[in-house]
Amino acid sequence: MKCLRSFLAVLCLVALWALPALAQDKIKVGFLVKQAEEPWFQTEWAFADKAGADLGLEIIKIAIPDGEKTLNAIDTLAASGAKGFVICVPDTKLGPAVKRKADSYGLKVIAVDDQFVNAKGEPMSEVPLVMMAASEIGAIQGNELWKEMQKRGWKPEETAVMAITAEELETARLRTSGSIEALIKAGFPEDRIYKVPTKSNDIPGALDAGNALLARYPDVKNWLIVGMNDNTVLGGVRATEGQRIPPANVIAIGINGVDAVNELGKPNVTGFLGSLLPSPDVHGYKSVAMLNDWIVKGVEPPLFTAITDAVLITRDNYKVELEKKGL
Ligand code: FCA
């Protein structure tokens, strides 16, 4: 009996010692995003967590709205013993500093969504990147705008394009130029495509840009709105509303999908027709899985992974389409 009791006591001690050790055994990786307030990035986080649960990783999620927070976050990751991180930087020019810091700690890095650029402004193609197929998805935006314009029977001479741009961000530039090229190819007059840069990639920035553009062209009857994501396009829509342009004279299609859910659920129909829903779920899951393979098996990720496919979600189908993806 005494023997059994001491055996059990030893067993308990071993268990107590082993449990935290097991917990500590989980590999830690970071997932750092520039705009944690956007559902896009929240979705990436949710699916990064799912990958973490499936692969036995601990995902450390940190919001990095500026350069200082970005570099601090990498210090935090290193201090907690993380082995690597996935990152969407708040400014692509931070690329070299992020890479240097990661290297100094021996952390592996995968960029998601926005590609790092070097001091000369050239893409840092040596850092593995998971990104949406930007030109292709932009082209779908242009084609869908054109289709809807045809459906409504709008005359090109009474219509113009408000293209809200963010040329310094390559994925944004590719999306809007893909959209504009598709419109021109379909037959939209090039001289009625008006570009305006946004100061910030959010609704207030795009609203200012849209207002500035509308003030320059007060005589346009119908507007098509082009932009790199939902918030940019929504800023443009809000600008048309502010100028009392009827929603029936506006066609706007966003990109991201998950950021358009509130708008599509509104009881009143706005000029926002819908959004292209790519795959934030795949971006989040796949980038973590690649990082895991790299850390655990030494399998280097491909330098470029383009995530294609985007479905147009509108008021009619958005619930079904989001559900299909488990969103
Ligand atoms: C950029 C945009 C995001 C999202 C992502 C895929 O980072 O800012 O809204 O579209 O690309």
Secondary structure topology:
Elements: H1 2-25, E1 27-33, H2 39-55, E2 57-63, H3 67-79, E3 84-88, H4 95-105, E4 108-112, E5 129-132, H5 134-151, E6 159-165, H6 170-186, E7 193-197, H7 203-216, E8 222-227, H8 230-242, E9 250-255, H9 261-264, E10 272-277, H10 280-297, E11 304-307, E12 311-314, H11 318-324
Parallel strand pairs: 1-2, 1-3, 3-4, 4-5, 5-11, 6-7, 6-8, 8-9, 9-10
Antiparallel strand pairs: 10-12
Bound molecules: alpha-D-fucopyranose.
Mind explaining what this structure looks like?
The strands form 2 sheets. Strands 2-1-3-4-5-11 form a 6-stranded parallel β-sheet, sandwiched between helices. Strands 7-6-8-9-10-12 form a 6-stranded mixed β-sheet, with helices on both faces. 48% of the residues lie in helices and 20% in strands. The longest helix is centred in the N-terminal third of the chain and has 24 residues, at 2-25. The chain has helices at residues 2-25, 39-55, 67-79, 95-105, 134-151, 170-186, 203-216, 230-242, 261-264, 280-297, 318-324; strands spanning 27-33, 57-63, 84-88, 108-112, 129-132, 159-165, 193-197, 222-227, 250-255, 272-277, 304-307, 311-314. With 327 residues, it is an alpha/beta fold. It is elongated, with a radius of gyration of 24 Å. Strand 6, helix 6 (170-186) and strand 7 (193-197) form a beta-alpha-beta unit. Helix 5 (134-151) runs parallel beside helix 6 (170-186). Alpha-D-fucopyranose binds at residues 38, 40, 88, 113-114, 132, 171, 201, 229, 256.
